[in-house]
Write a structure and sequence with these properties.
- It is a single chain.
- By secondary structure, the protein is an alpha+beta fold.
- It is built from seven helices and nine strands, in the order βαββαββααββββααα.
- The strands form two sheets. Strands 5-6-7-8-9 form a five-stranded mixed beta sheet, with helices on one face. A four-stranded antiparallel beta sheet has the order 2-3-1-4, with helices on one face.
- Helix 4 runs parallel beside helix 5.
- This is Nitrite reductase.
């Protein structure tokens, strides 16, 4: 039996992008007892299963509101806060649109993008490759966070006071520049150190 892997996310809502018990039960019943399910650090579940059943299974999961993404060297689905200030104030629409624009893009090394609806930053955007933080009606963008090391890196402020309509073009521009100029398997934080943050500012 040839197996393959894909990622599952619960999507976004006020109160958190967490899997509900009924979603997990549904997932298990649809993928079957032979599948392997792995919990990741970016709020996705990786499902490894019989490749012949994947299309059917993914279709059923989507019908029940779960989000499907590729697994591996791709931009991960947005890691967002719990929108505790409410959908409008915390920017749920922006988070959803940003996720739709960036999730599943092929990249040299897996890329994590964080979103926080206020300066409390409960989604830890400064530990992500790219972090977007809503500051009232504008946004700050941080880049270069990397927690997976004995010497973790905190993201640096890339751009501040950005209007909503510029967020998606800037983030997708960063990803595109990374796609075109990074070495194979080069982490985003190391890529920034090599090319410089000023070069990235000029690129976007």
């Amino acid at each position: 039996m040839k197996t393959s892997k894909f990622a599952v996310s619960p999507g976004f809502e006020v109160g958190g992008s967490l899997f509900k018990p009924e979603q997990l039960a549904l997932l298990g019943s649809i993928v079957g007892p032979d599948a392997k399910i792995e919990f990741t650090t970016f709020k996705q579940l990786y499902v490894e299963m019989d490749e012949e059943r994947m299309a059917e299974v993914q279709s059923q999961l989507k019908q029940h509101g779960l989000h499907i993404y590729p697994a591996g060297f791709y931009t991960k689905s947005l890691i967002a806060c719990n929108f505790c200030r409410g959908a409008e104030e915390a920017g749920l629409d922006m988070a959803t649109a940003l996720n739709d624009a960036v999730a599943g893009l092929p990249v040299p090394s897996p890329l994590k993008i964080g979103y926080a609806g206020c300066a409390l930053g409960t989604s830890e955007p400064l530990l992500k490759d790219i972090g977007v933080v809503k500051m009232k009606d504008r946004y700050d963008i941080y880049i270069g966070g990397d927690p997976k090391s004995v010497k973790p890196t905190i993201a640096e402020l890339f751009l501040s006071d950005i209007p909503p309509e510029r967020i998606i073009p800037i983030v997708t521009g960063l990803i595109d520049y990374y796609q075109q100029n990074a070495k194979k398997k080069e982490k985003f934080a190391r890529f920034i150190q090599r090319v410089s943050i000023d070069a990235l500012r000029s690129a976007v």
